[in-house]
Amino acid sequence: MRNTLPLFTIGVLSTAVHLTAHANGGHFLVDDADITPPGECALEVWAQRASASAQDRVDQPNATHSVVAQPLCTTRNGWEIGIPLEYNTSESELASYGLELKTMLSGDLYGGALALSIGAVRDQQLDSFEGAFINLPYSRELNESAMLHINLGSQYDSIESQWRATWGAAATVGLTSRFDLIAETAGVGRDSPAAALGLRSVLSSRVELDASFGRDFEVRSNLVAVGLNIAL
């Protein structure tokens, strides 16, 4: 499970909700309290299609298509380093890139685990700093087949030059030994939240395939995403 509620569901759920993406794959809204094992690496790749937001449909009626690749490696002392790269396939150019760091704070906190993630993103198309985030993902097992994930944090809005609170909640339910159902919601400040429903399939011990459909209720935009998570 992985994500960045703050900035990397960037193109994911339109332009108003720059949520960081990760509880169940890079394109998901809510992060989990887990990292790649120390000394190991992984690669997350996902393609996404976001419909034009309500305020953009007159000038830009077409949907936006993009692909994000995020290599991840964890140091021996437990810091996971990720470099997300977003390529806008609609305009055939690199849209943005970032740096994300994540570490475990506690493996046993009220029956669950707590992690810390921080990151920043640069908008390559506008050649400017896009924003930064800090997030505290908490994960707890509810029973043998269900997990709860809670996110609390803040993200810096470079347009308004201010920090805004972020939040998220997700549930992962094992349907079979190979399929998980993921339901989640997340938001920024008092804006209307975003919500998504997804499915993950375990193809092998090192490869997972996932897909999701999301809705940003603040700007009334839909997102469809398909991702692949590979342990290297």
Shape: globular
CATH architecture: Beta Barrel
The ordered H/E elements are EEEEEEEEEEEEE
Question: For the terminal residues, how far apart are their CA atoms?
Answer: 16 Å
Q: What fraction, in percent, of the residue positions are helical?
A: under 10%
- Major pleated sheet: 13 strands, antiparallel
Mean pLDDT: 85
- CATH topology, anyone? Porin
Structural class: mainly beta
- Poorly predicted runs: 1-24
Strand content: over 45%
Query: How many separate structural domains?
Result: 1
Number of H- or I-type helical stretches: 0
> Measured on Cα atoms, how large is the radius of gyration?
16 Å
At the fourth level of CATH, the homologous superfamily is monomeric porin ompg
What oligomeric state best describes the polypeptide chains here?
single chain
| Annotation, overall tally of beta strands | 13
CATH first level: Mainly Beta
Quick structural summary:
It contains no helices and 13 strands. With 232 residues, the protein is an all-beta fold. It has a single domain (41-231), classed as monomeric porin ompg (Porin).
Please specify the SSE layout and strand pairing:
Elements: E1 41-50, E2 64-74, E3 79-82, E4 85-88, E5 93-109, E6 112-123, E7 128-143, E8 146-157, E9 162-174, E10 179-188, E11 194-202, E12 207-216, E13 221-231
Antiparallel strand pairs: 1-2, 1-13, 2-3, 2-4, 3-5, 4-5, 5-6, 6-7, 7-8, 8-9, 9-10, 10-11, 11-12, 12-13
Outline the structure in words.
With 232 residues, this protein is mostly beta strands. It has a single domain (41-231), classed as monomeric porin ompg (Porin), CATH 2.40.160.40. 0% of the residues lie in helices and 60% in strands. The chain is built from no helices and 13 strands. Strands 1, 2, 3, 4, 5, 6, 7, 8, 9, 10, 11, 12 and 13 form a 13-stranded antiparallel sheet that branches. A hairpin with a 4-residue loop joins strand 9 and strand 10 (179-188). The radius of gyration is 16 Å and the shape is globular. Residues 1-24 have low confidence and may be disordered. This is Outer membrane beta-barrel porin/alpha-amylase. Residues 1-23 form the signal peptide.
